[in-house]
């Protein structure tokens, strides 16, 4: 009888589903390129929001925040498995979505911020982008895949035609925002322009010799997502509690920024070493109606359509829902 019971037990175990794999105990999140576009991440880090949301779901989780930024670096971090969530602009995200379609399946988790980028220059002769000289360079966070790179392609295509879509690519050079500010303010002879985001744009415009000749919203025709969050399908499927904790923490960070802009500004200032601005100055910038924090994507499909038309994407999303995981709070975005 005992043998029969033992055999029956083994049979049950053989056909029983395997025990679900435990969720991650450590989440790895790069902090991005800096500035207002990545402020929610710094809020999440400073206040331990992800850990708190995970604990509410019964998951003990620590978060490893790395000082990694730049679209290309962030994409590599996600694909190599050294990051679980990354933040980048829509063009870099779309390249990764397209590249991993059918394999790693990178998709959007949520939009994070919307704000313009500004093309600033210290040269007198540059009144429009058309005036750039052959020996001059424009600092962007990444050539080919950054917001400025695509925006300048859109501008060139509209003004000069399809044959000149990539007219300005050769003038771009990859550089993090703080380095771009230094290059511009020291009147670097080669790097004469910088496509800057807030608050780096505002810092540059403090100087009398710096002027703005273009901004991304003008080219895009309205408010546009600046940073968004993505991850792989495997991480999404294997870690539902950790994933949900991240999303809940992200949404709480938005609420905290809106509720106390001065405190949020101090968090950002501390993340940048406490130099270059005062918390009051940064808080005043947060009152700009063009700086917005929301999960709602804005004009992401416009990037996707354009990038598919020029061959930067093999696949074209049928709608904004194709780019995000099911259940994402898109708020009627586009």
Tags for this model:
5-stranded mixed β-sheet; 334 residues; 4-stranded antiparallel β-sheet; 42% helix; disordered N terminus; 16% strand; D-Maltodextrin-Binding Protein, domain 2
Note down, in words, how this protein is organized.
With 334 residues, this protein is of the alpha/beta class. The protein has 2 domains: 191 residues, Periplasmic binding protein-like II (D-Maltodextrin-Binding Protein, domain 2), CATH 3.40.190; 103 residues, D-Maltodextrin-Binding Protein, domain 2 (3-Layer(aba) Sandwich), CATH 3.40.190. The chain has a 5-stranded mixed β-sheet with strand order 7-6-8-5-9, sandwiched between helices. Strands 3-10-4-11 form a 4-stranded antiparallel β-sheet. The longest helix has 20 residues.
N-to-C span: 66 Å
CATH architecture designation of the largest domain: 3-Layer(aba) Sandwich
CATH hierarchy, class of the largest domain: Alpha Beta
| Average of per-residue pLDDT values | 92
Given as residue ranges, the uncertain stretches (5+ residues, pLDDT < 50) are 1-19
- Oligomer kind: single chain
Category from helices, strands and their pairing: alpha/beta
| Widest sheet, order of strands | 7-6-8-5-9
How many strands, what sense, and barrel or not for the largest sheet? 5 strands, mixed
CATH homologous superfamily of the largest domain? Periplasmic binding protein-like II
Number of helices: 14
How many strand units? 11
**How many individual domains?**
2
**Morphology:** globular
- Helix amount: 40-55%
Radius of gyration, taken over Cα atoms and rounded to an integer in Å: 22 Å
């Amino acid at each position: 009888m005992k043998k029969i019971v033992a055999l029956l037990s083994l049979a049950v175990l053989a056909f029983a589903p395997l025990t679900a794999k435990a969720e991650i105990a450590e989440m790895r999140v790069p902090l991005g390129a800096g500035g207002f576009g990545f402020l929610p991440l710094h809020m999440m880090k400073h206040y331990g929001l992800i850990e708190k949301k995970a604990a509410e779901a019964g998951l003990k989780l620590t978060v490893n925040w790395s000082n990694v930024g730049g679209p290309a670096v962030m994409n590599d971090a996600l694909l190599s498995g050294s990051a679980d969530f990354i933040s980048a602009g829509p063009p870099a995200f779309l390249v990764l979505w397209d590249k991993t379609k059918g394999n790693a399946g990178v998709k959007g988790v949520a939009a994070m911020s919307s704000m313009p980028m500004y093309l600033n220059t210290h040269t007198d002769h540059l009144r429009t982008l058309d005036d750039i000289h052959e020996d001059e360079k424009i600092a962007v966070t990444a050539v080919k895949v950054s917001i400025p790179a695509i925006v300048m392609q859109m501008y060139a295509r509209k003004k000069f035609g399809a044959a000149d879509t990539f007219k300005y690519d050769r003038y771009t050079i990859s550089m993090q925002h703080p380095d771009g500010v230094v290059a511009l303010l020291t009147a670097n002879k080669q790097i004469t322009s910088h496509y800057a985001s807030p608050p780096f744009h505002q810092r540059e415009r403090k100087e009398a010799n710096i002027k703005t000749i273009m901004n991304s919203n003008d080219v895009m025709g309205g408010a546009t997502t600046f940073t968004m969050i993505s991850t792989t399908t495997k991480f999404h499927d294997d870690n539902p509690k950790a994933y949900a904790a991240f999303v809940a923490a992200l949404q709480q960070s938005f609420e905290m920024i809106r509720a106390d802009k001065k405190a949020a500004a101090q968090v950002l200032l501390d993340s940048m070493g406490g130099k270059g601005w005062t918390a009051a100055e940064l808080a005043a910038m947060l009152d700009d109606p063009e700086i917005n924090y929301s999960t709602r994507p804005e004009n992401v499909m416009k990037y996707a359509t354009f990038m598919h038309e020029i061959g930067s994407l093999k696949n074209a999303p049928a709608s904004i829902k194709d780019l995000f995981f099911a259940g994402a709070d898109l708020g009627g975005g586009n």
